[in-house]
Design goal:
The protein has 464 residues and is an alpha/beta fold. It is built from 18 helices and 12 strands. The structure holds adenosine-5'-triphosphate and magnesium ion. Magnesium ion binds next to helix 9.
């Protein structure tokens, strides 16, 4: 976290104002869209009752609002993907339980009487929860052809599925697919209500964590070669568009960039990925492959596909930790589980190769990665244990500016004597800093430093 003193009250104020303005603009469009949605529902109900006294013959006669000049995220989204009546109505229906549940009350009056309108009721939510059937009921009525055509809204090829905008929850066993509840992602709701995009949260259906850092290039202590290779990746990200577009290399080159980071624990692999993301303005998501590999056939693919689908559109950097779990040396395919493992590898490889952004695989040992994959990497970057001078720098950079070292602490000598990686050094620094604060001092003593180092050694089963 940034220290509070860095943010002056006035900058907080102006950020709040901008935020309020953005919410205001977004709400305005959304109200207009929801009011159109409301009118469509009313009209469907009127038409269904066979009333003749309305000037419309079909719900499609009610045109959605014109947002061609609006600058809100919702308007952009509609324009960018050329979304029409059906898509817009589907999105409004999916978000209605969150933002305007009253609009759906119209279905409650006929609840249960008209099976065609589908829908379900929540456990604590009192309102009506629309299902796929509800949407088709409104858009197609009893027109079978139209109903069939509308199924595409929930197909795997559709933007809604690819970007995880809205979707149908899985229906209960033996019940029709369309009886699944219509859902909207939290991210999408955020985007259209405030214009901001929250990061998706880690969960069983999204096994990736957002990786961020307050540190910069200059805080990294890296071997020269490591730094050069990382800068090459940075340059690729920065010039990719020109390379693939203007230089027309898109037809010759694979779309993305695959890199392998290898080195002992705590040498800065994850941190470097986070810094690269920060530097190039991309979000970095870390996927722990050992946690994703599942013994249930198809599960792993399902979990990972969500990450690739969403990442692709947002240009995330995907950082696969413990890559050996999936890209390790191939065992002889003895039993079914092993055979399946290879199927997972094939799937993951295919997704990685098609991915248009940066994918980083990290491992502790390069030789753990199957030779067959080595040629697919655009770069293979070593993260060696830091040498004496690098360790000295790591020590120097790690202590708080509020603390000072006791006179008998010689960092060069400590760096010479103890072969620790950056990750262990930062642990020792944390240990002695707490010790000092606890003692009411700013000074870091040599004793606490050595004790901290001893504890680090113990962790790896070594003694001083
Ligand atoms: N080269 C480095 N320069 C600066 N700080 C470092 C460096 N390496 C490690 N650190 C410090 O150690 C912490 C842990 O490092 P990091 O998680 O990046 O290591 P890693 O190589 O990903 O380890 P692992 O293989 O265990 O995942 C960093 O957040 C940082 O504070
Ligand atoms: Mg790591």
């Amino acid at each position: 976290m940034k220290p509070l003193s860095n943010t002056s009250p006035s900058s907080v104020d102006s950020t709040n104002k901008e935020w309020e303005k953005s919410v205001w603009l977004h709400t305005r469009d959304l109200e207009e869209e929801l009011s159109w949605f409301d009118r469509v529902l009313q009209l469907r109900s009127t038409l269904n009752r066979g009333k003749q006294d309305v000037p419309y013959r079909s719900v499609y006669d009610l045109h959605p609002p014109d947002f061609s000049a609006s600058e809100t995220s919702y308007a952009h989204f509609i324009r960018q993907h050329q979304l029409g009546f059906d898509e817009r109505l589907a999105m409004m229906m999916a978000i209605a339980p969150h933002l305007q549940p009253k609009a759906l009350d119209i279905f409650l009056s006929t609840d249960g009487k008209d099976s065609a309108q589908g829908g379900s009721r929540g456990k604590s939510h009192k309102g009506f929860l629309p299902t796929g059937e509800t949407l088709l009921f409104v858009l197609a009525g009893e027109n079978l052809q139209k109903r069939i055509l509308l199924n595409r809204l929930f197909g795997r090829e559709h933007l809604f599925h690819r970007e995880k905008v809205i979707w149908l929850e899985e229906a209960r066993e033996e019940e029709p697919l369309l009886s699944g509840k219509l859902k909207a992602s939290e991210e999408f709701i955020d985007l259209i209500t405030t214009g901001a995009m929250k990061k998706p949260r880690y969960g069983s259906d999204f096994p990736a964590k957002y990786l961020s850092t307050e540190l910069e290039w200059k805080d990294l202590v890296l071997h020269r070669e490591t730094r050069l290779r990382l800068e090459e990746i940075q340059h690729w990200i920065e010039h990719r568009e020109q390379l693939m577009g203007e230089w027309e290399m898109g037809k010759r080159l694979r779309p993305g960039y695959l890199s392998l980071f290898y080195g002992p624990p705590g040498t800065g692999k994850s941190l470097s990925a986070a810094v690269l993301g920060k530097l190039t303005g991309k979000d970095v998501f870390r996927i722990d492959l050992s946690g994703v590999v599942s013994k249930y056939i198809g599960e792993t693919e399902k979990k990972l596909s969500g990450i690739f689908d969403r990442g692709e559109h947002r240009d995330w950097i995907l950082f696969f930790d413990e890559a050996d779990a999936i890209f390790g040396k191939r065992s002889d395919t003895k039993d079914a589980h092993d055979r399946y493992a290879n199927q997972e590898v094939a799937y993951l490889l295919q997704r990685i190769e098609e991915y248009s952004g940066l994918v980083v695989l990290a491992t502790n040992l390069r030789s753990n990665i199957d030779d067959a994959f080595q040629r697919r990497f655009k770069s293979v970057i070593p993260f060696p244990m830091p040498n004496v001078l690098e360790r000295k720098q790591l020590w120097e950079k790690s202590f708080s500016s509020k603390s000072r070292l006791a006179e008998d602490v010689d960092l060069l000598q400590i760096a010479r004597e103890f072969q620790l990686a950056g990750g262990s050094i930062i642990n020792v620094v944390e240990y002695c800093s707490v010790q000092a604060i606890q003692a009411g001092k700013q000074e870091i003593s040599r004793d606490s430093l050595i004790q901290g180092i001893r504890l680090e050694y113990q962790k790896s089963g070594l003694t001083l």
